[in-house]
Design a protein that fits this description.
Layout (H helix, E strand, L loop, with lengths): L3 H19 L7 H7 L1 H28 L11
Length: about 80
């Protein structure tokens, strides 16, 4: 099983690579440039927010939902 730090590093480099791949769209000019200008910005925001959620919120949810020892209470 992969250690979490190795997985986090791989996800970080994949995120950076995808953001860098779409950055040249910001340099386009004319109608094509104005049409595609928001694409790399939206992609970067989506990838960064996805990374934050996958490395903070999802493990936190898993910690609280998958705890051992907590037995459900019987309804009265």
């Amino acid at each position: 099983m992969a250690r979490p730090t190795k997985l986090a590093t791989a996800i970080m480099f994949a995120t950076i690579t995808n953001i860098a791949a779409y950055l040249p769209f910001l340099m386009l000019t004319g109608n094509t440039g104005s049409f595609l200008y928001s694409l790399p910005i939206v992609m970067a925001c989506a990838l960064v927010s996805s990374r934050l959620v996958s490395m903070t919120f999802i493990p936190l949810l898993g910690y609280y939902l998958l705890r051992r020892g907590d037995k459900p209470r019987a309804l009265r």
